[in-house]
Design brief:
Blueprint (H helix, E strand, L loop, with lengths): L4 E6 L3 E2 L4 E9 L3 E11 L10 E4 L6 E4 L10 E4 L12 E9 L8 E8 L4 E7 L4 E8 L3 E9 L6 E7 L5 E8 L18 E6 L13 E2 L2 E4 L5 E4 L4 E9 L5 H8 L9 E6 L12 E4 L7 E4 L3 E4 L20 E4 L13 E4 L7 E9 L6 E9 L8 E5 L1 H6 L5 H4 L3 H5 L7 H8 L19 E3 L12 E2 L4 E2 L2 H14 L3 E5 H7 L9 E4 L5 E2 L1 H12 L3 E4 L7 E2 L1 E3 L2 E6 L36 H5 L1 E6 L7 E3 L19 E2 L13 E5 L10 E6 L7 E2 L22 E6 L5 E4 L17 H14 L18
Parallel strand pairs: 2-27, 28-32, 28-33, 33-35, 34-36, 35-46
Antiparallel strand pairs: 1-3, 3-25, 4-5, 4-6, 4-26, 7-16, 7-22, 8-13, 8-19, 9-10, 9-16, 10-11, 11-12, 13-14, 14-15, 17-18, 19-20, 19-24, 20-21, 21-22, 23-24, 26-27, 29-38, 30-31, 37-38, 39-42, 39-44, 40-41, 40-43, 43-45, 45-46
Helix pairs in contact: 7-8
């Protein structure tokens, strides 16, 4: 009996009351599920807090849904638009491409380019065999004829490959020539490697041509167990400029193409210039055929563009500066940006729905075999009315979506100081390959994952989820502690998402007197960062209720908010590093990595920035002398003694997981007050690499002064202000003792003042405030 499993996602995650939202559900072991709309209030099931809390909401969509198992096409590839079947050759032809395989000896066949149906054994293709050798093959429905190179392809090296087929003689020749230079490949000139091969054979027949077979790059047509058309024999690596001719070219003509000259022969059927169409603000999914027939190709599962090409000379590091050297398009057989499931239900949300975090709860099965899924989305107000907005950091949720860092990263236990605590959800997420990876993971060929999407089930965005490597509630589950606190405190609030902030800019925030961040608002686009800075500078009052915020660049393409991109530089904390020359995002042309290296350190925006992160015990805060200053003493009103946050759901304290600190040298406003600071952190907390010039013993919690969290406050122009908590774990200290604790009291004092209509206490920058340089 198949175990019951339910998985789902929505077409969009930010909606208004009365709008339509689509739910895409896949089921295993059942054909029905009970649906119930719920508002999510608290997620963390730590017994020291309120536990999991949800509120059922009346909705016409509540009730029994028909569900089915849905197919997911995994792997990135390109499909050519060839309505007149010009690539269904009936005479002589030539195929050529510049290729850079990243896993040639994967043990599986890979197609580079071709018009091949593997199930029906018809068509042709040039690719890589199971052992890592270049190969051309063709068939007419029964026998498959193959021609294989004499030397294997080397990993991460550029080649010019081509096949010529003479229809009259059936003479077939396969060419393989290394085109590596001093910069563009893994190996240098000193490596004694044979890159070149030229092999020939006489085939018995022409390739067959099925009308239904598409011309693909990085894959070939196949069928799954249910005989649904799919793409298999997926390629690992980069493809640069490639094309096809309606004649068998001579070696000298191939040499001309290899010398970087654009082919001009009349027999040219297609020439895909992979570097065409680049702009300063990014690269699209269409690969342009610059030949006369315009047989353009479109990407699926977001092939990675803007990568270094076969002719990259190392002089420039950005596709915007020399696009002709960045024609590499990178493909991965495990890439996924859209499951493309059919919509199971289209739901019109109730018109009177309160702004908040919601889910469609799906259940099926019985007894211990019951399966439950929460398909999460967020409801923003139709028209803003509240004075407080909570901003869900959905880009950070995307960055971590379905992360396997807890399983695969070789340094995980050294980073966290503890063993992972796995749940059934973690194991299932790891075992499945059809829900994609996170930007903290690496593809199976060892290259980093730079795209993430919510058009797929995101299993660690469920409200009860605990991050196994740290054994604490993480992401959405952690941020719901702030939602529960707002509800318990009686504050009227509305919610927004990063998607809304990116799209609407500061206009998304301007209706609100006070905006509260999530516990880890780490990933920000340029538009989001600008909007936040403009909001604060224009008189907005901002509460940075977490740590490690505003730290990493991210990219969102206009009209596609469900996909984010990030590239990782060789500085700062990083689970992987982009190759040299590949640090710029294809989405918007922005350089990836920390905002700090672009001159926008977090301290410039909210007063504090990342100092350290780690696992194990969280610590408490102690009040600093500034907290008694008459301009800020209202923040700690009602707090007895010097201790703040000596308990919490995240490792028993308010200062933990990631810590932010005050640093004038990085842009902390000079009149910022330090309200409280933590200390005494374990040695699993190590100084942020962005702050270190040389590595040496002692860059950890018990030795280095920088390993601490600062709670700060400063005033901004036009009545604005920023209060920063300084720690990811702070949010999870709020529910302790039924929300009656001094961390809750401090945040309550700030929210009341920030949301009030009057002038803030201590607004004026008076001479008594510290102004040291």
């Amino acid at each position: 009996m198949t175990p019951v499993r339910l998985f789902g996602y929505t077409d969009r995650i930010s909606v208004k009351p009365g709008e339509t939202i689509q739910f895409h559900v896949s089921a295993e072991g059942t054909d029905t599920a009970e649906a119930q709309l719920v508002r999510l209030i608290h997620g963390d099931q730590n017994p020291s807090g309120p536990g999991f809390v949800e509120e059922e909401v009346a909705c016409t969509a509540n009730g029994r849904w028909r569900v089915e198992r849905q197919f997911t096409q995994v792997g990135s590839f390109l499909e050519v638009d060839d309505p007149e079947a010009r690539l269904a050759f009936t005479n002589s032809f030539t195929l050529f491409a510049f290729v850079h395989p990243t896993w040639p000896a994967s043990g599986k066949r890979q197609t580079i380019i071709g018009r091949w149906d593997g199930d029906r054994k018809q068509g042709y293709g040039i690719g890589i065999d199971e052992k890592g050798y270049l190969q051309f093959w063709s068939g007419r429905g029964e026998e498959i004829e193959r021609l294989t190179a004499t030397v294997p392809l080397q990993v991460q090296m550029w080649y010019f490959v081509a096949v010529t087929f003479d229809a009259e003689t059936r003479r077939t020749t396969l060419h393989q020539v290394g085109v590596g230079n001093r910069y563009n490949g893994l190996l240098g000139k000193v490596a004694l490697v044979d890159y070149e091969s030229r092999s020939s054979a006489t085939f018995r027949s022409m390739p067959g041509n099925l009308a239904s077979t598409p011309f693909l790059m990085a894959g070939s047509r196949s069928r799954d167990a249910q005989q649904r058309a799919c793409v298999s024999e997926l390629y690992w690596g980069k493809i640069d400029r490639c094309g096809a001719f309606g004649q068998a070219l001579q070696s000298a003509e191939l040499d001309t193409i290899r010398s970087e000259l654009v082919p001009t022969m009349d027999s040219l059927v297609a020439y895909w210039d992979t570097s065409a169409g680049y702009t300063d603000r990014g690269i699209g999914d269409v690969v342009v055929d610059v030949g006369r027939y315009k047989l353009n190709a479109r990407g699926y599962n977001r092939p990675v563009r803007g990568q270094t090409g076969w002719n990259w000379d190392g002089f420039t590091d950005c596709f915007r500066l020399a696009p002709q050297e960045f024609g590499g398009i990178e493909f991965h057989a495990d890439a996924l940006t859209d499951c493309n499931w059919k919509a199971t239900e289209t739901v019109v949300l109730p018109h009177g729905l309160k702004s908040g975090c919601y889910a469609m709860r799906l259940r099926s099965g019985w007894g211990k075999s019951v399966s439950e899924e929460h398909v999460v989305f967020f409801v923003r107000p139709r028209r803003p009315r509240a004075r407080i907005a909570f901003l869900f950091p959905t880009l950070t949720y995307l960055a971590f979506a379905n992360e396997r860092l807890s399983f695969d990263h070789p340094e995980r236990e050294a980073l966290t100081g503890q063993s992972a605590v796995l749940s059934d959800i973690d194991i299932e997420m790891y075992m499945r390959n059809d829900f994609g990876l996170s930007t903290y993971d690496m593809h199976a060929d060892g290259n980093g994952v730079c795209y993430s999407s919510y058009h797929r089930p995101v299993m660690n965005m469920r409200p009860r989820y605990r991050m196994p490597s740290l054994d604490v509630a993480s992401g959405l589950a952690a941020d719901l502690s702030i939602i529960a606190w707002l509800d318990h405190s009686g504050f009227e609030y509305e919610v927004l998402t990063d998607e809304d902030l990116h799209r609407d800019g500061s206009e998304a925030l301007s209706p609100y007197a006070c905006v509260i961040s999530g516990s880890r608002p780490e990933y920000y686009t340029e538009q989001m960062l600008d909007a936040t800075e403009d909001y604060i500078a224009g008189g907005g009052r901002y509460i940075y209720a977490g740590g490690n915020g505003f730290n990493a660049t991210a990219g969102i393409r206009d009209g596609e908010p469900w996909i984010m991109e990030c590239r990782r530089r060789d500085d700062g904390y990083k689970p992987w590093v982009s190759r040299y020359g590949e640090h710029y995002m294809a989405t918007d042309g922005m350089r990836g990595g920390p905002w700090k290296v672009l001159g926008r350190a977090t301290q410039k925006l909210v007063g504090i920035g990342l100092s350290s992160s780690g696992g194990g015990r969280s610590e408490l805060y102690r009040r600093m002398p500034d907290s008694y200053h008459r301009t800020v003493s209202w923040i700690t009103k009602g707090v007895d003694g010097e201790i703040i946050g000596d308990a919490g759901l995240a490792n028993d304290g308010a200062a933990g997981l990631a810590l932010d600190y005050y640093d004038r040298a990085l842009g902390t406003p000079p009149h910022t007050k330090i309200i409280a600071s933590s200390g005494g952190h374990t040695d699993s907390y190590v100084v942020n690499q962005q702050l270190v010039l040389y590595s040496y013993l002692g860059l950890y919690g018990s030795y280095d002064w920088r390993v601490h969290a600062d709670m700060t406050y400063f005033t901004a122009p036009h009545g604005g202000a920023v209060f920063a908590c300084g720690s990811v774990a702070f949010a999870q200290s709020l529910p302790i003792n039924n929300f009656r604790n001094n961390a809750s009291r401090v945040l309550g004092n700030v929210v009341e003042a920030f949301a009030g209509a009057g002038r803030l206490p201590g607004f004026a920058w008076v001479n008594e405030e510290k102004q040291w340089a």
